[in-house]
Amino acid sequence: MAKLRREMHRRMLGNGYCARPVETDCYFESICESCTFFVTTIEFRPILERQRDDAAAKGQIVRERIFDGLLSRLDEDAS
Question: Which contacts of 53-61 are long-range, i.e. CB under 8 A and separated by 24 or more positions?
Answer without folding.
Answer: 54/11, 54/12, 55/12, 58/8, 58/9, 60/11
